[in-house]
Write a structure and sequence with these properties.
Helix content: 25-40%
Structural class: alpha+beta
Shape: globular
Number of strands: 12
Number of helices: 10
Strand order of the largest sheet: 1-2-9-4-7-10-12-11
Radius of gyration: 20 Å
CATH superfamily of the largest domain: Jelly Rolls
Largest sheet: 8 strands, mixed
Order of helices and strands: EEEEEEEEEHEHHEEHHHHHHH
Distance between the termini: 19 Å
CATH architecture of the largest domain: Sandwich
CATH topology of the largest domain: Jelly Rolls
Length: about 300
Amino acid sequence: MKLSVQTGYAWKRRDGVVPCLLAALDYDRVRSGISGRIRHPFWVVDYSRSHGGYTRVGRVGAPWLERGPLVAHLYPPGMSYWENTGGGSKFQDGAYLIFHGGEVTGLDRLIDTRAGYARIEDPEGMVGTMLRDVAVGGAREGDRGFWRAQGLFLMLVDRLLNAKHREGPFYTLGPADAPVMDRLVSAVGRYCREHAAERVTLDSMAGALNVSPSTLSHRYAAMTGRSPLAELKAVRINLARSLLLRGLRLDAVAEQTGFCDAFHLSKVFKRVAGVSPRDFIRSARVAGAVEGRRDGPGGGLEP
């Protein structure tokens, strides 16, 4: 079994639609070392949620640059880059998006002429959430959902265009840069990450965010195409993957991710990830991605 959990879609190109979304992918996978040269004839947003290893841009002799978590790289058409995913956690969590016509939107103004790309720090995780929503929506709806995905993509472009320039290719996004709807989505993602181990209801989440449950539910669904509690579930399963790779027992993972017991976690994990926790961790051990073994009584994965 290949240890890779990914979702996304490649849309048919629409003549006359500029800019135009072409493909999106959201993934969790084992790190694979140094890649060959990567070069696309289109624009690329390449995003890392976990520590992304290192990236080299432009030429073979260019220095390797550390790729921290919650960072987007924006590459113009034809730009060469290499990835070295060694170091840090052995599991890589990220996303990428490919599109045509970025120069029409003004994204070309973000590209540093000397470095050849833009590096955009996303401390709120908003870009990562939007990329996941585009990829998940594409996988679910295919070509018939193109215009919804295109709309999310254009909101992502607007978000990137509001990044604050620091120096060279370096930019930073902050909560003040986002419109109200974007800030709500960002706040939901942050709340889910901070309270993943707790009992969370729509009412408790809405109260913490100072909106009514109805407003939270309707506005979040309008922006992302899913409910706030579905986002909570996705955050918990991503956290569960990380904890399993660290070697924690299944009952300990359930406790730290807000599930009532190991059985409940296993049921939801298989529905979301497509494999059971047992199969996931066995594949990880074969791939050498598990940091340690903590099996034994009380919920270990071994029979």
